[in-house]
Design brief:
It is globular, with a radius of gyration of 20 Å. It has 11 helices and 11 strands. It has a 6-stranded antiparallel sheet with strand order 2-9-4-7-10-11. The protein has a 3-stranded antiparallel sheet with strand order 6-5-8, with no helix packed on it. A hairpin with a 2-residue loop joins β5 and β6. It is an alpha+beta fold and about 290 residues long.
Length: about 290
C-alpha cells in the first residue's frame, strides 16, 4: 500500500456492528484514507465540496450519499469551493458479514448483497434515493437501543439496494477488484481483456472467444456490461493509468504507452475528456490530498 495514504483504524470494537458519527462542521480536513470496514457517508449543505473515490473526482451538490465497501479504496471529501459554514456529515461504519453461509446470503437480502459488491468501487445514490432514506438517516444517531438502531440501518441499506440510478464511482481496474459476471462468455472475454489491455485488441478476437459473430457479440457485450466494447477497454486502460499516476513515479508518457495508448497526445486527449483534467493535473491534485505518516 502507498505509504502516503492513511489506513484508518475504525472505532468499531470487538462485537460492535455500527459506528455512527453525526456531526456539524465548517470544513473538511481529514486526508485521503481507506479502511477495512464498510462505510456509508452522508453529507448535507456542502455544495462545492470535491469528493474523491478511487479515480473518481466530482464536485457535489447539497446532498451526497456514498457507500464504500472496498478495503483498499481511497476516498476523501475536500473543502474545495464549499462556502457553507453549517455542513452536516453522518458517517456510518459497519462490519456485517455478507459472505456465504451468513444470514445475509439468503434470498431476502439478494439486492443488498449485490449492492455491497458493486460498492467495492464506491456507489453514489441519486437525490430521490437519498430523500427516501433521509428520515432514517436523520434519526439514526438518536436511537439508544442498539438492536433498533441496527434494524433501522438495515432498512436504510435495503431501501438503497432497491433504488434505481445508483452509479459506480471508481473504475474496476483502479479499485483492484474483479466484479462477478452472470455470463461465462462475458467472464472469458473480460479475462482476456484484463490480460491484454496493453495490446491492440480486435473485435474479431473477442467474438471468436465468445463463439459469436461480431455484430451479435457487440450487442451481447453491451447488454451484459452496460457499455460498448471500446468504452469498456478505454475505461480499463484509464483505471490502470490512474493507479500508476498515483502509485508510481513513471512519466505520463511511459504510463500512457504501458496502458495501451498508442501515443501521448491520444492519451492526454482521452484522459482529459473522461476525467476532466490532464494526467499531470490528476497526479498533482491526487497527491495534494495525501499526508505522510
Amino acid at each position: 500500500m502507498d505509504r502516503s495514504i492513511i489506513h484508518e483504524i475504525s472505532p468499531l470494537m470487538g462485537k460492535d456492528v455500527l459506528y455512527i458519527a453525526d456531526r456539524r462542521k465548517k470544513e473538511f480536513t481529514y486526508p485521503i484514507h481507506n479502511h477495512q470496514v464498510y462505510e456509508l457517508n452522508f453529507v448535507e449543505h456542502a455544495a462545492g465540496v470535491r469528493r474523491i473515490v478511487g479515480d473518481s473526482s466530482e464536485v457535489i451538490g447539497d446532498f451526497d450519499l456514498v457507500l464504500i465497501t472496498g478495503p483498499d479504496l481511497e476516498h476523501v471529501w475536500e473543502q474545495s469551493d464549499c462556502k457553507s459554514d453549517d455542513i452536516r456529515e453522518i458517517t456510518i461504519q459497519f462490519d456485517i458479514n455478507f459472505g456465504e453461509g451468513s444470514i445475509f446470503d439468503r434470498n431476502p437480502f439478494n439486492s443488498m448483497k449485490k449492492m455491497m459488491l458493486e460498492a467495492q468501487k464506491g456507489l453514489c445514490f441519486p437525490l430521490d434515493a437519498i430523500m427516501k432514506v433521509y428520515r432514517e438517516l436523520d434519526t439514526l444517531s438518536s436511537i439508544k437501543d442498539r438492536f433498533y438502531a441496527f434494524m433501522q440501518f438495515l432498512t436504510i441499506l435495503y431501501e438503497l439496494s432497491r433504488c434505481e440510478g445508483a452509479r459506480s464511482l471508481s473504475s474496476t481496474s483502479f479499485a483492484k477488484i474483479e466484479m462477478p459476471s452472470d455470463s461465462r462468455r462475458v467472464h472469458k472475454v473480460k479475462t482476456f481483456i484484463d490480460a491484454h489491455y496493453r495490446d491492440e485488441i480486435r473485435l474479431t478476437q473477442l467474438a471468436d472467444i465468445a463463439g459469436m459473430s461480431t455484430s451479435s457479440f457487440s450487442r451481447f457485450f453491451k447488454l451484459h456490461t452496460g457499455r460498448n466494447l471500446s468504452e469498456y477497454i478505454i475505461d480499463l486502460r484509464l483505471g490502470h493509468a490512474c493507479r500508476q499516476l498515483v502509485d508510481s513515479n513513471r512519466t505520463v508518457a511511459e504510463i500512457g504507452y504501458s496502458c495501451g495508448f498508442n501515443n501521448l497526445s491520444n492519451f492526454n486527449r482521452i484522459f482529459k475528456k473522461r476525467k476532466g483534467c490532464s494526467p499531470s493535473e490528476f497526479r498533482e491534485n491526487y497527491h495534494k490530498t495525501r499526508v505522510i505518516i
